[in-house]
From TrEMBL:
One of its GO terms (biological process) is lipid metabolic process. Signal peptide: none annotated. Keywords: Membrane, Transmembrane, Transmembrane helix. Residues 44-257 form the Fatty acid desaturase domain. This is Fatty acid desaturase. The chain crosses the membrane at residues 20-37, 155-172, 178-197. Coiled coil: none annotated.
Length: 272
């Protein structure tokens, strides 16, 4: 008989426990600072210190949007609110923009929600791409949502709730609200777009095994939940992040050697 997966805990996969615990811990720290610190120098230093950690959280929000972390809807909505405070990506935004958009269209640069080509067919630079994807994230997500009304409704509802709560946090404590929530949401969304530039940029092909760059660095994949196994992720996007290395092994012979590289993110944290 198939083994049951931690039904008592609410988690679909036990591997998600530590990432969720760390994200919730960081959220608690944010709120402790919000209610106890109003010094802009201290809050600015904390904001800068958290740029990279909150950038890493973006990868885990991405995984959650592909395969919900909990069995219970209420727990998933709560986790998505927490993710939104760190990443600027609200409930179902990546599910629309990324899962139902980019993953279906990444081989078509006229349709891809994260397209790296300009309208004239030339390749965008990384800054242009970053701004293009980040600034259109919500509008493109909404456009996809019009084709998927069941996914669009929670996106609209929980986006409104999230932004209302953030506005209240800023109203109650403007300095802390801006430094702990608003600025991180903006910069994390930009960071997300920035690091995704190299996932597919320049790979103009209809072959799914030649359309993604991969990064097999162990530290990178530990921090991002195996996001470096990007071809495998696109091959079967519904596979849990913990299973991607095994899936990669089954298709590794189809991936050209030139598609293995160190990512921008790896170079930032490891150098080289």
């Amino acid at each position: 008989m198939p083994k049951k997966r931690n039904s008592w805990s609410g988690f679909r996969y036990k591997e998600d426990r530590w990432p969720v615990f760390l994200v919730l811990t960081l959220t608690v720290i944010d709120f402790i600072l919000y209610f106890t610190v109003n010094n802009i120098v201290i809050l600015s230093g904390y904001y800068l210190l958290m740029l990279l950690p909150k950038g890493v959280i973006c990868a885990w929000n991405h995984h959650h949007q592909h395969l919900f972390t909990f069995r219970q809807t209420a727990l998933n909505r709560g986790l998505e609110f927490v993710y939104a405070l760190h990443t600027g990506v609200t409930t179902h935004l990546w599910r629309l923009h990324h899962v139902l958009g980019h993953h279906l269209n990444f081989l078509d640069q006229e349709q891809d929600e994260s397209r790296w080509k300009r309208k004239d067919g030339t390749r965008m630079g990384v800054i242009e791409y970053t701004l293009n994807v980040a600034l259109t994230a919500y509008t493109r997500g909404y456009q996809v949502g019009k084709k998927h009304p069941k996914q669009l409704t929670p996106f609209l509802i929980y986006t409104a709730i999230t932004f209302t709560i953030v506005a209240m946090l800023v109203w109650y404590n403007p300095v802390a609200g801006l430094m702990l929530f608003v600025l991180p949401m903006i910069t994390s969304l930009l960071f997300t777009a920035y690091v995704t530039y190299e996932h597919h940029s320049g790979l103009d092909t209809q072959n799914e095994f030649e359309a993604s760059f991969n990064n097999l660095d162990p530290l990178f994949n530990r921090l991002t939940g195996n996001l470096g196994y990007h071809t495998a992720h696109h091959h079967k996007q519904g596979v849990h992040w913990s299973k991607l290395p095994a899936l990669h092994e089954t298709i590794a012979d189809k991936i050209p050697a030139r598609l293995y590289q160190k990512s921008i993110f790896t170079r930032m944290i490891l150098g080289g």
